[in-house]
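Obj.: predict assembly geometry.
Materials: sequence records (below).
Method: joint structure prediction, all chains together.
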Amino acid sequence: MNAATSQQTPAALHSRFDALDSLRRYGITIVFAILVVTMMITSPQFRTKGNFLNLLQQNSIIGILACGMTFAIILGGFDLSVGANAAMCSVVAAKIMIEVDIGLGIVAALIAGLMVGLFNGVLIAYVGVNPFVSTLGTMTIIRGLVFVYTNATPLFGVSFSFTRVGLGRSLGVPNPFWIFAAVALVLGALLGLTRFGQHIYAIGGNAVAARQMGINVKRTRLVVYAMIGVCAAISGIILVGQTATGQPAGALNYELTAIAAVIIGGATLSGGYGNLASTIVGVFLLGVVSNALNLFGVSPFWQPVATGSILVVAVAIDSAAARSARLVR
Amino acid sequence: MSESHVLTESPPVLQARDVSKEFGAVVALSDVSIDVYPGEIAGLVGDNGAGKSTLIKILSGVQSADRGTITLDGSSVHFTSPADARSAGIETVYQDLALAGNMTIWANIFLGRERTYGPPQLHLLDKRRMAQEAREMLERLDLNVPPINSTVASLSGGQRQAIAIARAAAWGSKVIILDEPTAALGVGETHAVEEVIVGLRDKGFGILMISHNLQQIDRLTDRIWVLRRGHMVDHCRKADTNLEEVVSLITGASRQFAKGLPA
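Observations (raw structure tokens):
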């Protein structure tokens, strides 16, 4: 009877819609590839092994935070508290490592990060507080408490052997990158291959529909924010590993860089879109740009200018592509 | 359009008897009874606030009745959630389309009922199987839609409504409840969706449809049920009545169909 198609757009338009969709999705990867190739050609320092390892070293903490952030953004929210949470976890880890034991310090930091994540999750999923408000609140509260507790001075005295985690290498590759890679693999599989990941996309796309179809929206949101808390804790532990200190002022503004990386990767703040591979491209795009500025001797004060500009341009192009996709339909 | 459709004399697949629902002092439904027969479209009409939505919410498990009984296929049922109603065989298509635009057609058809493989704790998505099964489901319903991997955002309003209705039918349910299925659609798309609805009726589903569009009620339904201020004022075979009569019952100008069915 051909009922649903009698009036509809032909298949060609669907493929054009999907083509525009793919462009939105993979455009940033193309830009990234062009950037890297250009840098390889123009800068001999860029193409050294040392510089590549440096890139991996410098972007792993942001990368871990951005992986968690991707989940929140697909859900239609975000988490501003990850930087403060990472700083708090570095202080908790350092304190316990100094006074008790390194292993216990790691466990304590993971639990502390998880607690903050659960707190955010309960506020957002069950109390119904807007993610911006609730995570802005926890961000300022946590940062304040950490400053009060430490008097805003770093906690010295962590066994120097622990810097193996933050500065050491395995198989020639910085250890923070191995940790980042493990987090990205686990979270990528969770998001792309499991029912839980599918439900995150469904909630981000249409939370009412997800609820009507029997998906536990509240629990999914809670689990996501809890998971982000654990990502912040892992970042905090690496922070300790890089300096052998607890850093109350560490990871400052990292939440914004992480959000920028996810959005540059093609996710939308309205939710429903995004994936970990694109987020990782977004992280390294920002990383390579700041590395390039560095190599060309540009003042580091220009770096946030570059990050902000890339963010605005990426979102503007994405909005234009989304508009033409709607026109196709 | 369906003048030639022969009414079945099989027993109702869904029956509500003396269903009442109060919200504080407000009586939303008072001793309402309704029957939905297999292979028939029952039209539920009434003015705004007459209780249509409340009745549908009770039948689909969103709300529970204060009093009254619901029988499905002859056995009494009690729904405490929409999932209960769905697993018993009552699927509801809401006005606001319970589809996620960012996801593919197959992902929407399997929304909340994903097929998984491997160790049960991992809940790994069986994407290929879901795409294949979704394609078969739509074929069984004679529904021609764009490729199963298209995102729903790329579909027209009519195609989306067809997918939403097909999803309800695909799950092998006995009764499909449609809340204003074409309210947001243009003329051509309305026609296409109506064909889908008639197709499902011909496959033996019992269909209960709310519509404000009385021409549509006239075109599609086999029986018409009229709610007014929480009371089921009357019901009638479509063939035995006309639009003026229905309107006068909705507005309260008359109290029963001239040739009502024996109760």
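Conclusions so far: Chain B is about 30% helix and 25% strand.
To do: check interface contacts against the pulldown list.
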